[in-house]
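Cross-posting from the modeling subforum.

Setting up a comparison between two proteins and wanted a second pair of eyes on the formatting. Protein 1 (sequence, then structure tokens):
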Amino acid sequence: MTRLIAGFGNCSQSAMLPPVALGVPVSESLPAASHTAAFAQPAPNVAEGQAMLATKHSFPRGLLQSMEASVQTFPLRIWLVDNSGSMSHTGGSRILTSGNKIIRVGATRWAELGDSVAMASEITIAMGARTDFHLLNPTPTGQFFTVGYDNDRCGIPPNQMCDLAGIAAVMSESPRGRTPLTEATQRIVSAISPMKDTLLANGQQVVVVIATDGLPDDSHTFLTALQVLQSLPVWTVVRLCTDEDHVVEYWSELDKHLEAPLEVLDDLMGEAKEIAAVTPWLTYGPPLHYAREFGCKNKLFDLLDEVKLLPSQAKELVEIILGSKQLPQPELDPAEFVRAVSDELQHAAPVFHPLKQYCMPWFDVKKMGRVVGQSSTGSCVIS
């Protein structure tokens, strides 16, 4: 499990802190060279950032538009990064590129998670957004880091930011220590609580991503801390970095004890396998996986590995991912719908298929066409 991607390439060319108000960074002592003052940075050019993500990482127009909208809904993302000793274990992998060549190589869980953190940072900066990274255990480099841009929408601009080189230096530290998830969650509660009313008034939330390969040191106190966190305007994503049965089972059972559901994401390969079993006509490319981690909250994304989508839902998914114009209704004219999807795919770069290990279109129109054409109006599903 946990096979995150670093630079997957362009397939078209082959201890409790005091309460901290939202908008104030919780970063601590990084080397000066790894920081730039927020006021020294010009406002980001989001159009240029999106163009970079499209060219370098094959992000389609629709996902870029969804991520841009999510910046307004989620003014802050907080990653709780597990740097406990078990993250040095093997079992992960990385996807590397060299020219048109794309390969998957074995890696430690920590190296793989480092790729994910690097990608999240790159997206954050490109989208003119902000992400805070909280390491579970302190390191010589520090423990709390802020990446991206805060345009003062929360009232208090950050005073320090960590750049891409800085976050790479952070993730080069070897993992060590325990898994104090309770204390880390309490710190996040302290950071978000002062802005609860403002977030609610603006209809906003904070994305909290818990990236871990293990269990909390104290499961009882962690459950309480997580319940307090979910009483705030947050959307909690659990990013599992292992496929060990007892860990997966713990997080699945934990979800049943919470009033608000957890969004539990597997690694890229694990998610791709689950989705392929239910929605085989979709290429679960890396951009979609990273968009979900970034905070693109859409019920259709959650359903991809759960149920066979109705044709109308498949139509909506295509429009969301590709950013296409409104497509024909597949129930009324299946052939016209398939032709329209084929036309839209001509304007979208192919994307790396995690299971087949080469680049493909986002949608297999032949599989879509066979199912839609054989289904009856009002009862058909895309499978």
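Protein 2 (same layout):
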Amino acid sequence: MAQFTQVDLLQVTTCLESNPKALLEDLLTANPSVAFVRFQWVDYAGIVRAKSLMVESCRSLLAEDNFVRLPPMALHCAIDSTLLPGTDYPGTHWLVPDWSSLRLSSNPKALILMCGVYCGPTPYSLNSKWDLCPRGALVRQIQRAEDEWGLKFLVGFEVEFQVMKQADRRGDGMVPLSNGLGHFATAGMLDPCWSVVEECAEKLRSMGVRVASLHPEGLRGQYEIALSPSSPLQAVDELMLVRSVLKETFHSRGGTATLSPKPMAAGGQQMNGQHMHISIQHANSDQEEWFLAGILKRLPNLWAILLAQKASYDRVAPWMAGDRIAWGTENRTVPIRRIRPDHWEIRGMDATANVYLALAAVLSAGLIGISNKAPLTWPDASSSKADIQDDPLPRSLSESLAKLEDSSCGLDQMLGERLVRHYIDLKRYELSQMEDMGSEKARNLLIEVF
């Protein structure tokens, strides 16, 4: 461990607690069974990873203004935990915690803490050593919006998931555990899994997460939990907590809750999305249209970050992620549904995305639109008089990665050229790994991870 300055820390968090020591001690006093603090981050594969410190080590770390050292692989792992070829093994990565995210986990013995990742040998290197951090990328866009235009955002998520179980005693394959009728049917609430969904919602509420609603979704055995809007960083932190609670609670009951985009075997029609709601605050009507236009123009480039696995592209269809560049007022057949002029639902995202990076990319696209005063040339697809343009979206991860590689969209300037290049390289390597393992093993891996 080595010392970092407060200036370094503020590069990856905008909501630093003024007294993290007091925050930690208050939580430990209220929860005397806590023995560990889990320092968590989300890598480019969208996987939540963690290093746990004993409480005593965490106290020492805070007393010395130190941070957590890792091997130089925090942002270099593919979904199967193999490392991107060419990874530079000498060096160090550092977990830089946002202490305001500290809270009790669903495990009464552990606290969790979300972190940024500093990639460099020492914390005193150039600021560019933050340039691979997805959380840092989101912080930069939030700060840019406020500094240059006085804009703030509220963000919320809809979490769709399926409950699965092992197909047989050998543990080969996964099949649905829940079979409750979907689409809001009260009959679906008679399935035994529904009481566990309610238990998860109660746990989340006790942990400070504002759950707005929950209901049976899809055809059979799928559920949805919708979260109330929060500031962007807090919203993503809470989403990671929701995933953890779902996974851990159902695992303790012998099931597997999965947010994988297509958990069913080939031919299954039911799929999971993770819709993102964005409200832009303090904007005028022109800025709102420019923001939307910026996102729409770059939607094919964003697709690689929002839909980050091969299986994600089975959702590129109406009523799911959408299949063409379009928006519409209360229209769920297109990628962007307008709920009101300053509130949009981004339907083209699922749980395979690194959500810090995905939100950073969407905000970047919108801010480019504002900066360029981009005209909104796409009509409201909900209007009977709309002349809908035929602008198809990428239908594969390979195609969308090629779109993201096109620097003319401007996302690399906003997010950082090194970050975008690293993301593309890792995703292409990961795609080859997934194809090599075969469709059934790949499906089971996505169920396990997401």
